[in-house]
Design brief:
- This protein is an alpha/beta fold and about 250 residues long.
- The protein has a single domain (about 5-240), classed as NAD(P)-binding Rossmann-like Domain (Rossmann fold, 3-Layer(aba) Sandwich), CATH 3.40.50.
- About 50% of the residues lie in helices and about 15% in strands.
- It contains 9 helices and 7 strands; from the N terminus they run βαβαβαβαβααβαααβ.
- A 7-stranded parallel sheet has the order 3-2-1-4-5-6-7, sandwiched between helices.
- Helix 1 crosses helix 9 and helix 4 (about 105-130) packs parallel to helix 6 (about 155-175).
- The two termini are about 30 Å apart.
- About 45% of the residues are buried.
- Bound molecules: NADP nicotinamide-adenine-dinucleotide phosphate.
- NADP nicotinamide-adenine-dinucleotide phosphate binds near residues 93 and 142.
- The site of NADP nicotinamide-adenine-dinucleotide phosphate has 28 residues, from helix 1 and strand 2.
Length: about 250
């Protein structure tokens, strides 16, 4: 029970990686507040699942791109669960196209949901963590933020921005015992990738040194570690969960 007694907020947990993080956090004893934007049914089902064995969990409809929503979310979590020890900024989208065809709206939406979201929730939770003189913030970036990717200029910029933000937060708040780290997943197989052409997906697997795509649990395991006191001397880092795809 690495997270016993801790309160966590996980954004974008109605499916995929965020859902696995919420599940692992409950298994490790944390109380979990998770968010979604539109998947109310999936969120309700997850809340039921997480609380089935006596776990404490609650889903919140909260737009990660909105500062007002972030402030309201933190207030509600503090009111109901007492504090916030852990924040996992996971909510994210892609809207891929070549730069030639990318609209201003496509740029703004991806930057706001992927990058501004980290600013929103980190800022909103700051007072609570400063008061507690402790906290762990984990921002979900991507190998694409480290390396760039053709056709994903908006996504890559948002994920690279997360890395600079993470390092700055770590430097600013280290003296208050608030840690901030980034995770850069590689190719993680989710419901979304299950719908892609099997040959294309196999090609991606073959190009990875460990010869498989990652699972949401692979990312969630690192979140547990970074959220827990096991990583109490680690801050400002970017850790890749990518089967060896990049070795930067
Ligand atoms: P996913 O399956 O598409 O799930 C995204 C989650 O984020 C959903 O729960 C969605 O909720 C939520 N979300 C989207 N926009 C939101 C908003 N504005 N406010 C609140 N929640 C919002 O994504 P995933 O593959 O699990 O990816 C999770 C994170 O890992 C993302 O940041 C992604 O960039 C990163 N990542 C993924 C991979 C990969 O291979 N899968 C690789 C590298 C990095 P709704 O359904 O309600 O919209």
């Amino acid at each position: 029970m690495l997270l016993e007694g801790k309160v966590a907020i996980v954004t974008g947990a109605s499916r995929g990686i965020g859902k696995a993080i919420a599940q692992q956090f409950i298994a490790q004893g944390a109380a979990v507040a998770f968010t979604y934007r539109s998947s109310a049914e999936a969120a309700e089902a997850l809340e039921k699942e997480l609380t089935a064995n006596g776990g404490t969990a609650k889903g919140f409809q909260s737009d990660a791109a909105s500062m007002t929503d972030a402030e309201r979310l933190v207030q509600e979590v503090v009111d109901t669960l007492g504090t916030v020890d852990i924040v996992i900024n996971n909510a994210g989208i892609t809207d891929d196209t070549l730069l030639m065809r990318m609209s201003e709206d496509q740029w703004d939406r991806v930057i706001n949901i992927n990058l501004k979201s980290c600013f929103n929730l980190t800022k909103a939770v700051l007072r609570t963590m400063l008061k507690a003189r402790s906290g762990s913030i984990v921002n979900i970036s991507s190998v694409v933020g480290v390396q760039g990717n053709a056709g994903q200029a908006n996504y890559a910029a948002s994920k690279a921005g997360i890395l600079g933000f993470t390092k700055s937060v770590a430097l600013e708040l280290g003296s208050r015992n608030i840690r901030c780290n980034a995770i850069a997943p590689g190719f993680i197989e989710t419901e979304m990738t299950a719908k892609l052409d099997p040959d294309t997906v196999q090609g991606w697997r073959d190009a990875i040194p460990l010869k498989r795509g990652g699972s949401p649990e692979d990312v969630a395991n690192l979140c547990v570690f970074l959220a827990s006191d096991m990583s109490s001397y680690i801050t400002g880092q970017t850790l890749c969960v990518d089967g060896g795809m990049i070795t930067a």
